């Protein structure tokens, strides 16, 4: 695990330059360290890696939004992303699959989480498979996945997997299965890691769904990104001198 410029990267077995590797980007909006949001992100990442065809042949990039908070705020004010933020956006728009995890604040996703996706062009995630997940102090907030996160990614025209994962405080440290879920069926019940068996089953199911969608996507050359990803050169990237911008505002006549 390496940390650089506010973005942590984890290389899959295929490596950053591996031919035919899938690119998985994980966006986690946890504010503390350690964070249950990051813990859930890591568990979901492991599940996806288990299910991707050619196990382990996946390149994983983890983006900690807490390290980009200042850059996100500055971008909202100026409209210009700092290099670290642009790098994070490129990782998201160039991914074959996306895991997005937020803590619940005031019954919805966090402001930091929403602000990051406000920075991304509304067409940049079109067709991208997304696994939505959230953490909170009580199970009463679990509907945040359906009334907030799923509509957000539907607006961005991403493909959200059917199983969204919510982890309440009570799900960490429990070992008994509930709601009829059984252990011993080839699914890690999470008991050895202090995770409730039903949460582990949801994680595994959601990981399998995202992996299936990632496997169905055509391979793209390494370095090719999405609508606003790395390697895209558009007129929007050109810097207009400030004097020309002032001249354009001059009232004529």
Short précis:
This protein is of the alpha/beta class and 253 residues long. It has 7 helices and 9 strands, in the order E-E-E-H-E-H-H-E-E-H-E-H-E-E-H-H.
Write a structural description.
The chain is of the alpha/beta class and 253 residues long. It is built from seven helices and nine strands. It has helices spanning 36-51, 69-78, 83-93, 111-119, 144-155, 197-216, 242-248; strands at residues 2-4, 7-10, 22-28, 58-64, 97-105, 108-109, 129-136, 159-160, 165-168. Strands 1, 2, 3, 4, 5, 6, 7, 8 and 9 form a nine-stranded mixed sheet that branches. Helix 1 (36-51) crosses helix 6 (197-216) and helix 2 (69-78) crosses helix 4. The longest helix is centred in the C-terminal third of the chain and has 20 residues, at 197-216. The radius of gyration is 19 Å and the shape is globular.
Instruction: Spell the H/E element sequence.
Output: EEEHEHHEEHEHEEHH
End-to-end Cα distance = 61 Å
Q: Output the structural class.
A: alpha/beta
Radius of gyration from the alpha-carbon trace, in angstroms: 19 Å
Report the sheet-strand fraction. 15-25%
Instruction: Give the CA-based shape.
Output: globular
Mean pLDDT: 78
What's the β-strand tally? 9
Q: Which segments are poorly predicted (pLDDT under 50) over 5 or more consecutive residues?
A: 1-18, 175-192, 225-236
Provide a count of the helices. 7
Major beta sheet, specifics? 9 strands, mixed
Percentage of residues assigned to helices: 25-40%
């Amino acid at each position: 695990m390496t940390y650089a410029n506010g973005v942590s990267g984890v290389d899959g077995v295929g490596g950053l330059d591996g031919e035919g590797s899938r690119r998985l980007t994980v966006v986690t909006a946890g504010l503390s360290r350690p964070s249950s949001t990051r813990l859930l992100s890591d568990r979901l990442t492991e599940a996806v890696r288990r299910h991707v065809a050619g196990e382990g042949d996946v390149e994983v990039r983890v983006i900690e939004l807490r390290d980009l908070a200042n850059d996100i705020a500055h971008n909202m004010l100026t409209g210009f992303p700092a290099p670290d933020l642009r790098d994070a956006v490129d990782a998201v728009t160039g991914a074959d699959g996306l895991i997005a995890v937020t803590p619940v604040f005031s019954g919805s996703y966090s402001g930091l989480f929403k602000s990051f996706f406000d920075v991304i062009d509304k067409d940049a995630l079109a067709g991208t498979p997304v696994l939505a997940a959230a953490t909170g102090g009580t199970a009463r907030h679990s509907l945040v996945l359906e009334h907030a996160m799923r509509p957000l990614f539907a607006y961005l025209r991403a493909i959200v997997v059917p199983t969204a994962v919510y982890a309440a405080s009570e799900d960490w440290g429990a070992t008994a299965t509930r709601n009829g879920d059984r252990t011993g069926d080839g699914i890690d019940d999470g008991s050895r890691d202090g995770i409730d068996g039903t949460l582990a089953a949801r994680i595994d199911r959601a990981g399998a769904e995202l992996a299936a969608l990632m496997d169905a996507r055509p391979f793209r050359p390494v370095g090719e990104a999405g609508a606003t990803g790395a390697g895209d050169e558009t007129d929007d990237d050109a810097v207009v001198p400030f004097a020309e911008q002032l001249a354009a505002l001059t009232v004529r006549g």
